[in-house]
Fold 2-hydroxychromene-2-carboxylate isomerase.
Amino acid sequence: MRWYFDFISPFSYLQWQKVKRMLDAGHAVEPVPIMFAAVLDAVGQKGPAEIPGKREFTYRHVLWQAAREGVPLVFPPSHPFNPLPALRLCIAAGCGADVVDAIFDWIWKSGRAADTPESLAPLADVLGVAPDAIGSDAAKSGLRARTDAAIAAHVHGVPTLAIGEALFWGNDAHEFALACLEDPGLLGRGEMARVAELPVGIRRKA
């Protein structure tokens, strides 16, 4: 299994708490940091924080979900923010669960800035990453390769949990993903199978 995420996404932070429980239970899940903006460009969409009205709703919805799930969540100083430094730090530090956890907590548990290498310098030091590693060619190419692979796998948003070729998008789809993990044939039966071939009745003009 692969779990695609971007630190810019508070819903990724929420689902990460559930992914950690999967890891603790012995499931093999690879965290894959990707650039959400590149995915949006590939599918021709705007992010929810780019749409007036939807932005405020999304922020309130995620705060409500966090409270319901018992997850502490504090928004960083600004949002949307540039997630590249945080994503590249993750790659430079090895993308392990402890690294992903530390960066998410820095941004979404403590509400700290992560939009420049300078703002992340104290965390990079704790993770044992040299300051220049965040902007290194290896970190940049590593992020680009992961994002390109996600787009090729038809990932259209974050967070997304991939179980084989099946993609489960969103924190609120986690229980659905677990159900399909428990019953691998679920998507191939009955109406679940039929909707995969459902004809398109109308298309909006571009």
